[in-house]
Design brief:
The chain is α+β, with helices and mostly antiparallel strands and about 140 residues long. It folds into two domains: about 1-35, no CATH class; about 40-130, Ribonuclease Rh, Chain A, CATH 3.90.730.10. It has four helices and eight strands, in the order αααβαβββββββ. It has helices spanning about 1-15, 20-35, 40-50, 60-70, and strands at about 55, 75-80, 85-95, 95, 100-105, 115, 120-125, 130. The strands form two sheets. The protein has a six-stranded mixed beta sheet with strand order 1-8-3-2-7-6. The radius of gyration is 16 Å and the shape is globular. The two termini are about 20 Å apart.
C-alpha cells in the first residue's frame, strides 16, 4: 500500500524539498493528519447537531466544515444502498498549497466519479440527500 501511494502521489510531491523522500512524505502526511484532526472536528459537529446516528444534511455539514477550517473541502460519497435513503461519506479531501497551507479544493466541472470502494463508487455528494458519516469504522 505504501509503495502504491508513493508511486502514485509521493513522486509528484517529491519536487518539493520537504517531501523529497518516502520518509519525509509519509512523515509530513501524518503531521498534517494530526493538524487537521478531522475526526475530532466531526465529533464536535455531531454533538452540536440534534440528529442521531451521525446523519447530517450535506449543505449543513459543508458549511460547518468550511467554517471550522476556513476553506472548502472536497467531499465524496457512496450512493444510498438499495432500500436506504442516506448516502455515506466515503472520502473528505483537504487541499494544500506547495507551502503546505490549507487552500480551497476546486473540482473540475464534469468530474463525477473517482475512487472505487468495494462495490460502490465514490462520487460528488448529493446536497439533497441525508448523509451518514461512520464515526466508528471497523
Amino acid at each position: 500500500y505504501r509503495k502504491h501511494e508513493w508511486d502514485k502521489h509521493g513522486t509528484c510531491a517529491a519536487t518539493l524539498q520537504i517531501l523529497n523522500s518516502q520518509k519525509k512524505y509519509f512523515g509530513k502526511a501524518l503531521d498534517l493528519y494530526k493538524q487537521v484532526d478531522l475526526n475530532r472536528c466531526l465529533l464536535l459537529l455531531h454533538s452540536s447537531f440534534t440528529r442521531a446516528l451521525c446523519v447530517f444534511q450535506m449543505t449543513v455539514l459543508k458549511e460547518a466544515l468550511t467554517r471550522a477550517y476556513g476553506v472548502t473541502l472536497k467531499i465524496q460519497c457512496l450512493p444510498p444502498e438499495e432500500g436506504e435513503e442516506a448516502q455515506t461519506i466515503g472520502q473528505i479531501e483537504f487541499c494544500f498549497t506547495k507551502n503546505l497551507e490549507l487552500r480551497n479544493c476546486t473540482e473540475p466541472k464534469g468530474m463525477q466519479t473517482g475512487l472505487q470502494l468495494g462495490t460502490g463508487e465514490l462520487s460528488v455528494c448529493n446536497d439533497t440527500l441525508p448523509t451518514y458519516y461512520p464515526l466508528q469504522v471497523q
